[in-house]
What does this fold into?
Amino acid sequence: MKSVFPYDSVELSPNGREVVILDQSQLPTQEKFLHLTTAEQVFYAITRLKVRGAPAIGIAAAFGLAMCVNRFKTRSLTALENEFLRVKRYLYISRPTAVNLMWSLDRMERCFYATKQGLDAAEEKHAIEVMRNALTAEARAIKAEDVKMCEAISEQGFSLLRPGCGILTHCNAGHLAVSKYGTALGPIYLAQQQGYSPRVYCDETRPLLQGARLTAYELTKAGIDVTLICDNMAASLMAQHKIDFVFVGCDRVAANGDVANKIGTSGVAVLAKHFKVPLYVFAPTSTIDLDCVSGSEIIIEERPAFEVTDMYFSKRMAPKGVRVYNPAFDITPASLITGIVTEKGIIKPREIKNLKKQK
Ligand code: MRU
It folds into this structure.
């Protein structure tokens, strides 16, 4: 699969001492890269959506942890361990909904203790260096595996498409949200490369406009036929038979097949059911949380009111002091989902519970 972008949205510098991200909060008007060198900067980048999208958040957190360990000056493995755990706990709560964040940080912790336990007498003298190398390699492996996952999930999704079909997408589950290519947008890139000329409709995705600012940006850059619509226009397009599929990403899949994704996804799913448009959720296995019984257990992040009233408006659009409810995600019940596309295959939501737990 070819990438249309010369850069990735999240990287670790070759010396492992900087996390380099494309600042997604500045898109589409500015392509600005940030070089993060502290845990606080990584935390801030995640909370302010400078790096966003479930897999990209997980990768950024793992890179952040490796970067902090590489920068921490000490000769004591115990001091390094304390610093590792401090940064891990801190980044763990930067956002609550996307399980990739916790999944990748827990994986880094398993790597820390496996490395510590495996140190032989010769290595103990160089324990700090061995640990730094192991954690840096683990963080890079998390990203490399995500690239492979995106390729596989794109192939799976591509198998559903036919030339000239219309796809509605919500939020951004593309190149920017992952290591490379995307999940829900991956099949669309592949379809374009195979000459299928897909037509994409992208919801603007209120209030933070991930669809307008990010999906429209990356698909336009790739020369894909994309039409931007306001979130309340999807029903009208479905009624006109312009949409053959809905493809969306996700932040967490519960064991019963319920899915958390960007606020507005469940509304699109209700419409898709009404208009008999198949809706597929793209979920790498790193996003599947078998410990979570159903969608009602998923913590939905609530974000500040100014994102609804002021942000992206040239002047305030609501009266001062008005009460605002700003949930960043919603739960789409399993019953509204046609299939969950994973890198291993396309499965029915009710089959999620049969998957093997992802370590
Ligand atoms: O708040 P965001 O922009 O991080 O929300 C992102 C989404 O909801 C995406 O659809 C999801 O993370 C999947 S990214 C492949």
